[in-house]
Amino acid sequence: MISVKGLTKKFGSLEVLKGIDAEISKGDVICVIGPSGSGKSTFLRCLNLLEKPDGGTIIFEGDDLTSKNIDLNVHRRKMGMVFQQFNLFPHMTVLRNLTCAPVMLKKADKETAEAKAMDLLSRIGLAEKANVFPDKLSGGQKQRVAICRALCMEPDVMLFDEPTSALDPEMVGEVLDVMKALAGEGMTMVVVTHEMGFAREVSNRVLFLDEGVIMEEGTPDEIFGAPKCERLQSFLAKVL
Amino acid sequence: MQEWIAKLNETFIESGYYKFMLEGLGNTVIITLGALLIGVIIGTLIAVVKYFAEDSKIMKPLAALCDVYVTVIRGIPVVVLLLIFYFIILTSAEGILVAVITFGINSGAYMAELIRSGLGAVDKGQMEAGRSLGMSKMQAMRKIVLPQAIRYILPAIGNEMIALLKETSVAGYVAVVDLTRAGNLTRNNTHDAVNPLMVVAVTYLLIVVVLSRLLKILERRLSGNDKR
Questions:
Q1: The CATH number of B2-223 is which of 3.40.1180.10, 1.10.3720.10, 1.10.760.10, 3.40.30.10?
Q2: Tens digit of pLDDT for each residue in A173-192?
Q3: Per-residue pLDDT tens digits for A46-86
Q4: Which of A44, A56, A76, B118 could cross-link with B153 by S-S, CB 3.0 to 4.6 Å?
Q5: Closest to A153 (Cβ–Cβ): which among B134, B136, B227?
Q6: Residues on chain A touching B122 (C-beta within 8 angstroms)
Q7: What is the pLDDT of residues A145-176, one digit of tens each?
Q8: A207: β partners
Q9: How far A181 CA lies from chain B's nearest CA (Å)?
Q10: CB atoms A153 and B143 under 8 Å
């Protein structure tokens, strides 16, 4: 579904990604782990070109997103993204947060979009919050709404950029539960996370990123059970 | 006291100059509002261009052009600008039109900066969230960023409007009868040196006080509406 080849990214003279190759197939749940500053988030943000790569290609459903003559906006509609800071639209109600993009981009008319949004909200138990503004929600609720907002566009893949890192510890679980359910439904997901338990339990492949390269990749059992490279061993020793 | 009222009556009412003063007040209001509208439009355009120029190569030359505009306009006194437009650029236009255009172009340069800082005050993640959903830059700007920026921009525009209102008092330089010039002409023709000027000053003061009050209310409303 997504094929990344030789991806590089520099911020000024700082080389953040030094040639990343990755294959993401339909139904994959891939967790990207690694120390902070390793380029995990940058890698994820390159996938939908929120960061413009300096080199390499990203083939998404047959189209090279890095090529110049491509309408990125069309492709982004098929890639949902969830941010660390939620980034809900504070001037819109929860319902409008969900329906705004599908209606504006003519993906659905207002009634259809609202029905879809209410369905999503009731599945996460927040239907009664449809008409409140985001500032009335807890962090965990905000992030669950943000996940629904991305889902409302019916994406083919979901990108999660440290979705639980800005949450109070007691709210991490409710967000992870939603993500687990999503994975259970067969959604293709790429998750940058520090939640090793989640990576271990839910993902089918783990990428360990360090210093801008994928140092090691494998199944959760391989990565957590028998880490090969020294960097990964010392990283796991610190976080587990 | 009675003497003073009689004097006022003589200067403004009996002479009929009150009509003249009212016309001047009307022109001052027209110039201020017209210039404000032009200023907001120019300011928004420049601010949006400069906002996007941060990460778009195509916008860069356009942004440079905007910088030149802002620098030139801010570097020239508005009276000089007014005379240039009246005597050199828009020679066949009426004074009041020249005034509206000149003050509009002038205030656009100031508006650009304050609208830009309003846009900058909106979290970058908002634009990213919009883009990640597949909105174009302009769509995300219109639906996501601008509506949030207005909270920061409106009070500043109010202040600009107050400054603009007072600045228009130099419109008389290009044969426009605004409030100031109406007062001046009344003073010349009635030989009452005190009251016309006082009336003019108090009128400006009253408008500014009322505008400031409205602005306070607006600011309180906007901060009360903080949805963050």
A1: 1.10.3720.10
A2: 999 999 999 999 999 999 99
A3: 999 999 999 999 999 999 999 988 999 999 999 999 999 99
A4: B118
A5: B134
A6: none
A7: 999 999 999 999 999 999 999 999 999 999 99
A8: A32, A217
A9: 22
A10: no
- Residues of chain B contacting residue A134, judged by C-beta atoms under 8 Å apart: 227-228
How far does CA B132 lie from the centroid of its chain?
37
* Percentage of the residues of chain A whose pLDDT score is greater than 70: 100
Residue A46 burial (CB < 10 Å; 0-12/13-18/19+)? buried
- How far away is chain A from the Cα of B129, in angstroms, using its nearest Cα? 6
Angle formed by the axes of helices B146-167 and B95-121, nearest 10°: 140
Between CA A70 and CA B125, with CA B141 as vertex, the angle to 5 degrees is 85
Cβ neighbours of B123 in A, within 8 Å? 85, 87
User: Which residue carries 């509506």 as its tokens?
Assistant: B147
Tell me, what's the pLDDT at A181? Answer: 95
SS3 B122: coil
Q: Among all residues of chain A, which has the CA nearest to that of B136?
A: A73
**Nearest-CA distance from A86 to chain B in Å?**
9
A74–chain B Cβ distance below 8 A for any pair: yes
Interface predicted TM-score (ipTM): 0.92
A153/B144 touch (CB, cutoff 8 Å), yes or no: no
| Shortest Cα–Cα distance, B216 to chain A (Å) | 21
Going from N- to C-terminal start, the domains of chain B cover 2-223
